[in-house]
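Please predict the structure of the following assembly.
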Amino acid sequence: MRASIRFYLGSELHEIGEVSPNTTLLDWLRLDQRRVGSKEGCAEGDCGACTIVVGRLRDGMVRYEAINSCIRPLLSLDGCHILTVEHLKAPDGSLHPVQHAMVDLHASQCGFCTPGFVMSLFAMYLEGAPPDMQRIEDALAGNLCRCTGYRPIVDAALHVLNTPRQEGIVRDMGVRLAALQDRQDIAIEHSSGVYRAPVDCDGLADILSQHPGAVMVAGATDVAHRITKTLERFPLLVDLGRISALREVTADEEHICFGAMADLQTVRANLGTIHPHLDEVMRRFGSEQIRNAGTIGGNIANGSPIGDLPPVLIALGAHLTLRSKAGRREMPLEAFFLEYRKQDRKPGEYLEAIKVPRLPAGALLHVSKISKRFDEDISSVCGAFRIVLGADARITEARLAFGGMAGIPKRAAHAEAALTGSVWSESAAMQAAVELEKDFQPLTDMRASARYRMTVAKNLLRRFALETTQGVPARVAGPLKAVAHA
Amino acid sequence: MLERPHKSSSAKGHVTEPVAHESAHKHVTGEAVYIDDIPEPADTLHICLGLSERAHARVTSLDLSAVAAASRVVGVLSARDIPGANDVSPAGLHDDPVFADGLVMFHGQPMFAVVAETREAARLAARFAKAEYEDLPAVLNVADALAAGSDLVVEGMKLERGDLQSAFDSAPRRIRGAMTIGGQDHFYLEGQIALAVPGEDDDVTVYSSTQHPSEVQHMVSHVLGVASHNVTVEVRRMGGAFGGKETQGNLFAAIAALAAKRFRRAAKLRPDRDDDMVATGKRHDFVAQYDVGFDDEGRILAADFDMAARCGFSGDLSGPVTDRALFHIDNAYFYPAVRAVSRPLRTNTVSNTAFRGFGGPQGMAAAERIIEEVAFATGRDPLDIRKLNFYGTADRHITPYHQTLGDNIIAELVGQLERTSDYRARRNSIREANQKSPIIRRGIALTPVKFGISFTATWFNQAGALVHVYRDGSVQLNHGGTEMGQGLHQKVSQIVAQEFGIDLSRIRITATSTGKVPNTSATAASSGTDLNGAAALEAARTIRQRLTTFAAERWKVSAVSVAFRDNHVVAGDQRMSFADLVNAAYMARVQLSATGFYKTPNIHWDRAAGRGHPFYYFAYGAAVSEVAIDTLTGEYCVERVDILHDVGRSLNPAIDRGQIEGGFVQGQGWLTTEELWWDDKGRLRTHAPSTYKIPVASDRPRIFNVGFFNAENPEQTVHRSKAVGEPPFMLAFSVLHALSDAVASVANYKFCPRLDTPATPERILFAVEDMRARDEGTAP
């Protein structure tokens, strides 16, 4: 058992004991360390001004990724290498190539968002990303700029990713981070709350059996809002981030099985092998920073009616495993969601794994995420559909799952029934669409009206049919965009 | 007066050069200091506001005892703790309390402030307030306000020219309609913030993220009940402003100063983003009602506009904002007979304020809508209707406010863009292709901009500057303008470097401070460079003239032979480095410091009469946008934009291009995805970037061609440049009208889609459905 965390900030090793579990990395950097280059723009992980780069050991290599420091509990960074905008200049004061490109291409105006953009670009630089426009737009979708209109920033990215990379800041960190790894649980007691980070599932089950009401944190991209916005102060925060067993992903010809702590980038890479629509919905899941931090388990267990993964996984027929000291139980994902913000998770239980079947023979899949802004937005409606066609081209099974249409991610039972047994066609889709009115009474809120949600839900079934039966291009943006006519 | 720049200096960084923003190196390294980055004085206190939870109510009790007793709280402040006036109305209307006193007028109105040892402690404590309310009827939007006959926050304005009634009577065709035009949150990345440091006696220094340090100074003195000379306001840079820090910083600065003086410790107020968005004003949303008479060709004969605006609970700048909506009700079009009235309506929502364009965009939205109506009614290309109705140069050139346009270049500019963008051919191919594309439809539109430059409050059109030359030849420059990212400081430095013939690196610009240049105007109305650049030039010229006289006497040459170039001062075969000459001048007791002052000539305005010459000149531009929409979902994408914009003679093409592109994308956001949404309790539910969606990188136009129209300003502005801050914002109407074009394709262009804004995917989809319904004759 350890009562402190250790990480590198640049080349400095920090060992920290007495810190509240409610302290964010950004506050620690700005208030404690007086490193004020990273900015707070929103304190909810949406504007990217606080973006920093974190290196973590993964399979013996250091993987560097951009994350939002404003919604990252400091104590969750044990064993990491943290780089902020202040680390980029060379010792002789010369600018890093990323910084140079930003200056030369006039990519800053007010400058407040700039450190965040620099760090997002720096993460791409370290990753060795190709100068690919889609990749750049994806990496920058979590950084808001209100001044430039983005063109010069994208140009700076293209420029710097087209030039040979230099190593420098991150040399030899693998060995140094490896020296920090141990198999000890972390327990830090602070006057404002207790932080526990067990290293294995048994340790986690023990803690949860003693403290069944404890708040669990995975990537913190949702839980941290309760710290920064609703100002909850958790008496006990249980961090699942050190349990490597929960990060495991196994794949065979039938299934992909995700540990609950698999991060969303890993989820994207794996689900993308099933169908291109899954890659696309994951591409648009939050932002790069969020995908680097958030987990599949977190997106399910927080029970949001508008999370993007649940409808997708329900359509795919995923099952999840819940575990506690008493043992394991399994259920279809749709059974987990009981009502708005209420799930079938008993005290002491945690989400262990999600098992996703690959597509059966004859299956057609479709996923559409509809939001006010195309990238980096929360769905107003997310539709995920899987139908299986029998030998006579009739639908033998239909799974139509929606987010944003009810208090929980939910299947459209009437519409599914209407489809089952019919020949898949645009008219079958449109007949089933009418049935959605029996399945859902969506709400009007700031994201969309009830009428829009229902209209779009119906039209998505039609889009599914058009795309799969007529090859009619029906996407206006993103990688699935229809090939431009004329 | 102002003359053309000198030529052929090898010194670096003069006007017309695309040098980088003066702080670019500091931006990218994180070394640029914003107010929250300033090292805090010892024992700095932190403030959190307590906000109203009702839209309109009497506060029957406000129990702050638990707040005061909370951990690490030093004290609470409310209306009764204000020694001076409980008012920060920028317009002198006394309707903008610092703290609501017994009556709350909008959901989110500050009622008290808690002052604590840390920001966290202050935020935690603020939740312990116990307020009891007695609800009053709340008027939340324009429709309700019109229905309820709400009062006006200031008197409306009326512009009138020509015989409207007979023009309508004789017009062959006539259309009436209405358009809802949404508001917009500034979403400056750096939120509102103020740090106040108490001094001796009544003194206080306030670091405020403000576009208007002089007003903050006056408001702080007003609230503290001390003289202005006690208050120094300083701002080095803002992390974005866009009008949102023209008046909205006043309250934060006043409260920080109040706490600093009360507790005799430095005090900082930095609201959380959500509080910032809830408690500060935004762009006004409008309902525009229009009535247009025209002939069969599409020539407008009569136009009548009623512009009703949601102003919120107080006046703030709503008077001049709604005035400017009327000043741009014509955009670039001549109305032979016209009437336009404004209705600045009081509502129980946050008090709306300045935002890039300052009402102009809303007026222009109505102008472009009637063009579109006429185009659909006549079945002609909207561009032809636009061109048919453009102002003339020799006739048809009198505006609704009776100013004669003297610098009209819109026809030539649009003609050039029409060619370079290949508008006609693209429009044809889009129309053909749409017939073969059942789901994805494309649209294209070219829209013009004409924007009047000058504050319509004539007295604001003045500026001061202070230039010091030190003995080593380095120059320290200060002026009344503020830097919010627009590159003002660099442009003004370039002007001064050029005047002295020295490298830009020899000029050091310092933080804007009311202690250096007094009684300044807001950096607003796109006027920053026009005013402050001219004032700085004047100051530099004064010093240069002294140096010229000194050199002429020393070298026994005529003053006209003395030139400043290449970091040297030369006259015939005499040559001395600028630094050496400066030092020699010092030794000879020549004054090396000067102030400069500038006021815009030839402007006047009589609001009551609706007549005058409010604008010194106009900036012009035009844009072509091409979009694609998905008729199943309303989703869309801006595929290509071509812009031709008039910046006069560009002082810095890199900075000007940045203003054009950035303004365009911000305008695109306003017209597309940026939706402010209040619930029926008057609570703003889009109060953070998770719910309020400004454009991201992938929203920028895929192809983005930007060109400058090649002409200098015929007026004698500084180096014949033109203002560039606001006009490009309105180029984004091309996106709205391209979306409209794509929507109209669904009914084969028979009907005007009448898109309201913001044209969210939802609005696009419903407009598509409406087109289909009308096409089938099932529309009501």
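Chain B touches chain A through 94 residues (CB under 8 Å). The first strand of chain B starts at residue 45 and ends at 51.
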